[in-house]
Design a protein that fits this description.
Layout: H1 2-27, E1 31-39, E2 43-44, E3 47-48, E4 55-64, E5 67-76, E6 84-98, E7 101-113, E8 123-132, E9 136-150, E10 154-172, E11 175-185, H2 187-190, E12 194-205, E13 208-217, H3 230-233, E14 237-245
Antiparallel strand pairs: 1-4, 1-14, 2-3, 4-5, 5-6, 6-7, 7-8, 8-9, 9-10, 10-11, 11-12, 12-13, 13-14
């Protein structure tokens, strides 16, 4: 019971705090928006968090100038979070630094509901990204408390780092070619890191966002200590998503 109660309590506090901040922003007459959608495979930094199965996702955000608060959630299927839900609470700020250039800073706390592991996988992330014309993005992230549970070594928490680059190339109307690559340095947890990359088509039709993305990872991601699920969660795969924006 302990493994399930604590994450729910944390996620409730997280959502409450973010929604209170969002309500304050909305009361000031600023913008509140969000989305809800479905994907055939929830993939994050090249790794499937739904073990190749579909996931329902949604978010709610409030904007005031360059500041933003929000909540994002997704269903997932993890070795220790079976049929669980991931909830992210975020605080962000976007700062124009030159013509068509922006710096984006974001703090995210990620909580997992229905987490039955002795460790609890909740973690925090601080990210910085530099964008140009909403086309190019270069980013770096620090996770100070990334988690791994080792069946023959017990729980472990350590620093992890992520670096990525993306490019959106206009094709026609509201459709773009999306290209990207990154490296996830989890050497303090697994003794090594891995590269990941993607290419695909993204676009909008009215209030709907559509993504069809081919994703792949470096071969060593298949056997980096992800247990018996390595070939299910790493390697090449398609991710197709449909979201309704409101």
């Amino acid at each position: 019971m302990r493994g399930s109660r604590i994450p729910v309590h944390r996620a409730f506090l997280l959502c409450s705090a973010v929604l209170l901040l969002g309500s304050a922003v909305a009361a000031a007459g600023e913008i509140v928006d969000g989305s809800i959608g479905v994907t055939n495979d929830y993939v994050y930094r090249g790794i499937s968090r739904s073990r190749g199965e579909s996931a329902v996702q949604g978010d709610l955000r409030a904007h005031a100038g360059g500041a933003q608060v929000g909540v994002w959630a997704s269903t997932l299927d993890h070795a220790d979070v079976d049929e669980g839900v991931q909830v992210d609470g975020l605080l962000a700020y976007r700062l124009p630094i030159a013509s068509e250039w922006q710096l984006h800073a974001q703090f995210t706390h990620t909580a997992f509901l229905n987490d039955h592991s002795p460790l609890l996988y909740d973690y925090d992330e601080v990210a910085l990204s530099l964008t140009y014309q909403a086309r190019m993005s270069l980013g770096a992230a620090w996770i100070p408390n990334a988690a791994r549970y080792r069946y023959w070594g017990g729980p472990l928490r350590a620093d992890a780092f992520a670096y990525d680059a993306t490019w959106l190339q206009p094709l026609f109307s509201s459709w773009h070619l999306s290209l990207g690559a990154g490296y996830y340095d989890v050497s303090a947890l697994y003794g090594n890191g891995y590269a990941y990359w993607h290419s695909g088509l993204v676009g909008t039709i009215g209030p709907f966002d559509i993504e069809t993305i081919w994703i792949d990872t470096q071969d060593r991601a298949d056997y980096m200590g992800f247990g018996p699920y390595g070939d299910e969660i790493a390697g090449s795969r398609w991710s197709v998503a449909l979201r309704w924006r409101f």
